[in-house]
Write a structure and sequence with these properties.
The protein is of the alpha+beta class. Helix content is about 45%, strand content about 20%. A 4-stranded antiparallel beta sheet has the order 1-2-3-4. The chain is elongated and about 70 Å long. It starts with 5 loop residues before the first helix and ends with a helix.
């Protein structure tokens, strides 16, 4: 027996399952990168920055700063997350947190948010 709308309900359930699988994959990507950053940076203060503009790809930044406010590690992901991977941003590594690139570069907004979170951790110690 074919009930009216049953195809639509099956379609919606398929979308929900697909969304959950993609969400799980994204979570695993973030956890792997987070662990890698912490493993490679045993000393310093860790911060995460998010920038999610409407109708544009979002950005996430994982950053580590040291006691002298120098950036020791910076990883960025930009785009529609199911198609994106984290990338190191070597141009900013070993730069002070108030460097020109950190404040005005193409990823400045998300980097500044990550730095602010790292500094909160730094100030709480």
């Amino acid at each position: 027996m074919n009930l009216p709308g049953s195809s639509f309900i099956i379609f919606l359930l398929g979308i929900i399952v697909l969304k959950q699988l993609l969400s799980y994959g994204n979570t695993q990507l973030y956890v792997r990168e987070y662990r890698d950053v912490l493993q490679k940076n045993q000393v310093g203060y860790f911060g995460v920055g998010l920038n999610q503009p409407k109708l544009q790809p979002g950005q996430v930044c994982l950053i580590v700063i040291d006691q002298t406010d120098t950036i020791r590690d910076c990883r960025l992901i930009r785009g529609w997350s199911i198609f994106s991977q984290f990338h190191s941003y070597p141009e900013i590594i070993n730069q002070p947190i108030n460097s020109h690139l950190a404040q005005t570069g193409p990823y400045a907004k998300v980097i500044q948010a990550a730095i602010a979170n790292a500094q909160k951790q730094q100030n709480s110690h």
